[in-house]
Design brief:
mainly alpha; 2 domains
Length: 289
């Protein structure tokens, strides 16, 4: 079938995308230890290769994968998990829908490719199981509690002590104690629930809490201006909330904006209230440190 140069350039872009995704899925499959996940990834890789072959009949060209994208997504998968990497990649693929509609007018067989992308492959992706996503609730608990409690505590301590090293010490002790307490509470909570392993739930909650505590306290360890430290801590808190909610929105197909603003307003609101309470207490009792 003869196609125009303009259409050929679009088809070549599709061909590049398919061979790149085939290579990514194949690499992910080779590094996957879970046999069920590996089979799913190999099946999707096979379908991507078939799509590549479909487009190749119109270009009569061999195209090599985009190795930069292969490197990017395979490393994203190692750091943030296969599900996140794949769904992030599929979001990019969704942008090609307008181009598909243009090609569909001249190549009706494109409809089968669209159906594969929209239905079959998405169903296959849902079959992939990752432990970390099963414990998102525990991670949210640890992360959210650490953000609310420690931003509030650091706001109060900042005005109360006005000494960054003392604030860091007090905040760290508070964070460690609260982290262990939260992990223990999660263990006891999940022990009476079905579905999740209570010890693993506690571990995920504790790790999320301690990582958040460490990030929030960092400014107080290196900077002497306590108000500037508090500002940086709140900025870090916003970035943590932004990153985590984006991760969850992609990996679990959940809405992003509402969850982000809700968590951000709660954390900042608690910090403001605690800072105000510390001012009132210090003035009322006449405490000078």
């Amino acid at each position: 079938m003869e196609i125009t140069n303009q259409l050929k350039s679009i088809v070549k872009a599709f061909q590049l995308n398919e061979i790149t995704e085939h290579t990514i899925y194949l690499k992910l499959a080779k590094s996957e230890k879970n046999e069920s996940n590996r089979k799913v990834l190999e099946q999707i890789a096979s379908e991507e290769k078939a799509h590549y072959g479909f487009w190749q009949q119109f270009t009569n060209e061999e195209i090599k994968p985009d190795w930069l994208m292969v490197f990017f997504y395979t490393w994203i998968a190692r750091i943030l998990g296969i599900t996140f990497a794949i769904k992030l990649m599929e979001k990019g693929e969704a942008k090609a829908q307008m181009a598909y509609s243009v090609v569909l007018l001249q190549i009706p067989e494109t409809k089968k490719i669209i159906e594969d992308e929209d239905a079959h492959e998405h169903k296959l992706i849902e079959l992939i199981k990752e432990e970390r996503l099963n414990y998102v609730g525990s991670i949210v608990l640890g992360l959210n509690d650490a953000l609310v409690e420690l931003t509030g505590a650091l706001a109060g301590l900042s005005f109360g002590f006005q000494n960054t090293k003392v604030i860091a010490f007090a905040g760290l002790i508070t964070g460690v104690a609260a982290g262990f307490s939260m992990a223990a509470a999660e263990y006891l909570s999940q022990k009476h629930e079905d579905g999740q392993h209570p010890f693993k739930s506690a571990i995920y909650t504790g790790i999320a809490y301690f990582i958040t505590v460490g990030l929030l306290i960092i400014p107080y360890l290196f900077i002497d201006q306590y108000l500037f430290c508090l500002f940086l801590t709140l900025v870090i808190a916003i970035f943590i909330i932004l990153f985590f909610n984006y991760y969850i929105s992609v990996a679990k197909d959940l809405p992003f904006k509402r969850r982000f603003f809700e968590m951000a307003m709660i954390s900042l609101g608690v910090s403001a209230i605690t800072f105000g309470v510390s001012v009132l207490i210090k003035k009322y009792f006449g405490i000078e440190l």
